[in-house]
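pls read this stuff:
=====
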Amino acid sequence: MGWHGLLQAEFHGAKHWILTEILTYELEKSRSIEMDRWVSSWKNLNVDIETTPGTILITAPIGYETDLASIPRFTWNIISPWDVARAAVIHDVLYGALRKARTGLNPQTVNILRAQADNVFRKGMVDADPNIPDWKIFSCFWAVRPFGRWAIRKQPKFDN
């Protein structure tokens, strides 16, 4: 379980990275916050998500454009985008799909899928190697959880 490979991306200017290799995160169904019940919803949002008997695989494709993690520059000496980059990219994939489709979804579905995306972000940080300290995971998760709804409402930075 966990991450399949390292984050491979090219830098294209301030807060703009393009994946040069796929990035896949494998989540155990037993830890999936009932995400397996919503796989078809994520697929309908064009997320590359697959299931096996015990896992859910979420993939960011080659060419995916991201800002890595939206961590303010002034905090980089405490938490940098590199600390949580892989989890942030998968989270971006999920949020990006929600952002594109949110007007066609009922608010309850958006809230459920957003909570799942945020929990995938947290679990991705927990499964990271090298380990991310618990206080960084807690801080990043609780920065995203209450404020992520605005990220879904705004215009996308990149047209993935």
User: Anything to note?
Assistant: The chain has a mean pLDDT of 88. The helical segments are 39-44, 85-101, 107-126, 134-153. The chain has one domain: 2-153. The first helix runs from residue 39 to 44.
